[in-house]
Structures are given as structure tokens and as C-alpha cells.
Design brief:
Layout: H1 2-8, H2 19-32, E1 36-38, E2 41-45, E3 51-55, E4 58-62, E5 72-79, H3 86-103, E6 109-113, E7 123-127, H4 131-145, H5 164-174
Parallel strand pairs: 5-6
Antiparallel strand pairs: 1-4, 2-3, 4-5, 6-7
Helix pairs in contact: 3-4
Length: 180
Amino acid sequence: QLVSAAMFGKVTPVRAADWPELVRVTRTLMARGAAGIQGGAFERTWHDGITVRGRVDWLRRVAQPSQLRAWSYEPVEIKLRREINDDDRLQLDLYLWLLEAAQGVETTGWFWMGRDSDNRPLHVIEHTLDEMRLRGAIAHAAAITAGAAPPIFFGGHCEGCGWRSACGETAAARRDIALL
């Protein structure tokens, strides 16, 4: 939050009652040309009918024409650590892929790593989509989910998930320890 505040100032994050509303609000803000959007939500259907979702730390408006009009957006992923890893790269690949569908134009993404004494990023690293890496990861995830469901684990990743209520019902029926 400190890096966000230092770089973007005070803003209102995208909030909604459910995932479809998060996606609608994000698209509305993009269409209006908001300078920065915190927590923008996207979904896109993979070629096998799998819906892929993501929620970006920040979207920054840039002067690159798109189907939105004279602007488009770049995703910014803020990490307090100083080094990016393969999971981070895959995460930003996903956001770039989702964003391309939403605005009809390819763009680059950014990692803001660490923070200095003024809460500004120590390292700013540009990132371009590696579609082969993303395709491999989604294919791997699809293969895993085609099997038996994994154990239920509730956490921050559940916010906005379409399976949240199903997991809650299953856990309650089983009297699962995950409910604690």
C-alpha cells in the first residue's frame, strides 16, 4: 500500500459485491479513461472452455490507442521484495494476456520491486508476454483440475472466486477443519 500511495496518490480501489461486478466496474473505469485503477479484475476463456481470471495490482493508463479510444492500460505488479521469480513472470504474463483481450491491443507490463525511503520502487522492470510459458502453465493447471478436487483451503485467494460458495458448502457438509 505504501508504494501504491507514493506512486499513484490516494485512489479508490475497485470494489464490488461479486466477481462479475468486479469485471464490469473494471471495464467501466477503463472505458472512462481512469488514470489508474487499483485491483482491476479480468476474465477470459481459454480455448478449452476454461475461464481464466486475474486481479491486477494496478492498471496505469498510457497514450497507446486501443479499442478503448486514444489510451490503453499497462499492468503494474508491486512486490516488496527486490527480485522477481518465475511465478511472478507467469503472473504478469497472465495479466498481459487478460488485458489484451479487454482492450484489443498488446502492451507491456511492469514490476515495481522493493521500496526506498520515500516508498518508491527500488527497481522498475519491464515485462513482455511470454505466451508459450503461459500456455504451458494453463495446460498444466487444466490437467490437474481435470482430476480429483484438491483439499479445501480457505485464504485470500478465495475473494472473488466463483467456487467460494461451493467450497464453503462442501466444507460445512464434511465438517472440514478448513472452516476453523
